[in-house]
Specification:
The protein contains 22 helices and 22 strands. With about 650 residues, the protein is α/β, with parallel strands linked by helices.
Length: about 650
């Protein structure tokens, strides 16, 4: 049946209901006789016209009656009232017909409202019966945690995907014993382990999208104690728009892993700093760069220029279906190519640069010193010189906590970048750098690697049980970048207050619970620290003072700096060594610039008494290579544990 024919039938059906209600009202008023039929027949077309017009105004012709709810009931009442008032005014005061009994105005309105509501509720009930009879019997049983709006809507979706809800759990005492769609609330969340034992469901589904991080941690802990696989639904907005099915239940929310409340920056000042300017983002196809790209669009720059050496990711960024009036340009370019970068900046008249292009993987850069320096140090230096000559007004560098007391060469290149930005003489171009920790969910970062290992090998690898890192979400990282751009002064190194560092062990333990698996299901592989890797990261040097800024969550690192003349001389000597020197000479020169750099790999043995109780004999090199699968050195003999889920402390998660 075509959409037009379907709409016509819906209008016709409701017109018949209106006519029938009017006729029945007349019969009821006159004891089931039909006197003054001419008055009725003359008034009926006007009544029908006004009723249909009011129903069209309140969108009562859509026909999706299987989803009838309170909003439809409200629209029916509004349409009936509007039609009745219009009919009364037209009949009595405009046409002047007094023969239509006043009581019929009321009776007909009530009958019409009941008829329109009844046909919708009957349709919904009929479709539900048909669905229950035609859908496959549920082959999985679940207990739903949360008896609110999200839980109710989830219950409607469960049968369509082959699930059967056994019970509901909710902490609201007023909901105890209440049934939703035939499923009863049998207790509160604290009773979950007992309830799960009583009903023996296949899964638990958390249907509380508005839960805080603390509430979610409490719920997931109870789910874990129950020993049943569990998952959680997406945001409430997705549910309300009807876009959620069981297949879309999310395994983990990165904010659930953060261990603190994400920082919410007030970025009103960014609007003033960005609006009306041509802005360029280097590394625009990376995790941080692409998030910068998306957020900057909302601040109304004149043009947004996206630069990246990776053609395919930049292509996908270009193909993103974004609704924005901001003009955009996508440039495939290497930031170390001075002529190319000059052409881009001059052609588009760039006035502000967010520099997110850098090599970031710690172990890889230990074996590629020359490329790390060429890109992260001299690429930055040449880009800043070109930008200044071309009239850029603002330049922001993204740095890392690995720049503090570095043991990795990648961290050294980040520290050299900070020194370049901070030591350059004051000029019309304001230069600022931003230092922050590991980014949850960025490309190649620990969470996606852990998830892939859980999904494919049922093993997770970490380098040491006590390793810790500072973590932040991608939106937090980008908010910090934008905040620094707005409040930073020339030469500033700004640092986010990220709270306490998190053990990778705890991150992995939370991830496994939120993935709906028992910790004992996963084999845990410990290795030793890799070249350049530290047990913990720091946010400040001991000689740096932590100075406040206008935002209480952003601090300024203030310390004594090397003069630009001396730093430039060191950099020129380093440039020569890149072309002619050995790895040892390059590291030695870097240490001359950064005395805190220690490139002797710290050998931290695994604590024998701290290993989990499920430790098993060592794996063979072949088995370990298959288990690690993410850049670990083949042949190292790890220990295996399933007492708690842990993961590889993958370094340098910045784009």
């Amino acid at each position: 049946m075509s959409a037009r024919m379907r709409s016509s039938l819906i209008v016709l059906l409701q017109a018949l209901l209106i006519v029938s209600s009017a006729a029945l009202a007349w019969l009821l008023r006159f004891d089931f006789t039909f006197p003054h039929s001419s008055v009725f027949l003359w008034a009926l077309p006007l009544l029908l016209l006004l009723r249909l017009a009011a129903m069209a105004r309140f969108n009562l012709f859509h026909g999706y009656w299987r989803y009838t709810g309170m909003s439809d009931a409200e629209d029916i009442v509004k349409a009936v009232l509007a039609g009745s008032v219009g009919f009364l005014i037209a009949e009595r005061w405009i046409i002047g017909e007094k023969g239509f009994p006043i009581s019929i105005y009321v009776i007909e309105a009530l009958l019409t409202a009941v008829a329109l509501g009844t046909v919708r509720m009957s349709s919904r009930a009929f479709m539900q019966i048909v669905q229950n009879h035609t859908s496959e019997p549920g082959n999985k049983t679940v207990i739903v945690i949360g008896a609110g709006c999200a839980g109710m809507m989830l219950l409607q979706e469960l049968p369509r995907s082959g699930y059967t809800a056994l019970a509901l759990v909710d902490d609201d005492p007023a909901k105890a014993g209440v049934s939703l769609h035939g499923v009863q609330v049998v207790g509160n969340v604290n009773d979950l382990p007992t309830i799960a034992k009583r009903y023996s469901p296949d899964e638990l589904i958390i249907a509380i999208p508005s839960a805080t991080r603390e509430q979610m941690c409490h719920i997931t802990e109870l789910c874990h104690k129950s020993g049943v696989r569990f998952r959680t639904i997406p945001g409430l907005a997705d549910l309300l728009h009807g876009t959620v099915t069981i297949d879309q239940l999310r395994e983990v929310n990165l904010e659930d892993l953060l261990g603190r409340v994400p920082v919410d920056f007030k970025l009103d000042s960014v609007q003033r700093s960005v609006a009306g300017k041509v802005v360029m983002v280097t590394g625009a196809a990376g995790s941080i760069g692409s998030e910068l790209f998306h957020q900057l669009l909302s601040y109304a720059p004149t043009k947004l220029v996206c630069v990246d050496q990776a053609e395919t990711p930049l292509f996908f960024l270009q193909q993103a279906n974004l609704v924005s009036k901001v003009e955009r340009a996508y440039c495939v370019a290497d930031i170390t190519d001075t002529d190319r970068m000059r052409d881009i900046i001059e052609e588009h008249e760039v006035r502000a640069i967010f520099h997110a292009a850098a090599y970031k993987h710690v172990p890889l850069m230990e074996d590629n010193l020359q490329e790390a320096v060429k890109n992260n140090v001299f690429g930055l230096l040449s880009l800043m010189e070109v930008a200044e000559r071309c009239g850029c007004e603002d330049f922001l560098l993204i740095s890392s906590d690995k720049a503090v007391n570095p043991t990795s060469f990648m961290g050294c290149t980040k520290r050299l970048g900070e020194l370049i930005v901070a030591s350059r003489a004051a000029s019309p171009m304001r230069s600022v750098s931003v230092r922050f920790g590991n980014v949850l969910g960025s490309q190649g970062s620990v969470v996606p690697i852990f998830q892939e290992q859980i999904r494919t090998t049922q093993r997770i690898t970490i380098t040491h049980p006590e390793i810790t890192r500072f973590f932040m979400t991608i939106p937090e990282a980008v908010s910090l970048v934008l905040q620094a751009f707005a409040v930073g002064k020339h030469g500033d190194v700004l640092v986010l207050d990220m709270g306490e560092p998190m053990r990778i062990v705890d991150l992995a333990r939370t991830l496994i619970r939120l993935s709906g698996k028992a910790e004992e299901e996963i084999d845990i592989v410990f290795t030793e620290l890799r070249p350049g890797e530290k047990l913990y990261e720091e946010l400040f040097y001991c000689h740096e003072k932590q100075m406040p800024t206008s935002n209480e969550k952003v601090m300024r690192a203030s310390g004594q700096l090397m003069s630009w003349t001396k730093l430039f001389q060191h950099l020129e000597e380093l440039r020569v060594l890149i072309a002619t020197g050995s790895g040892v000479s390059i590291r030695s020169k870097v240490r001359d610039i950064i005395p805190e750099y220690s490139f002797v790999v710290e050998k931290t043995p695994l604590p024998q008494d701290g290993l989990p109780k499920y430790a098993t004999p060592q794996l063979t090199p072949r088995a370990f290579a298959a288990a690690a699968g993410a850049g670990h050195v083949e042949g190292r003999q790890p220990q295996v544990s399933t007492d708690f889920l842990q993961g590889s402390a993958f370094e340098g998660r910045l784009e």
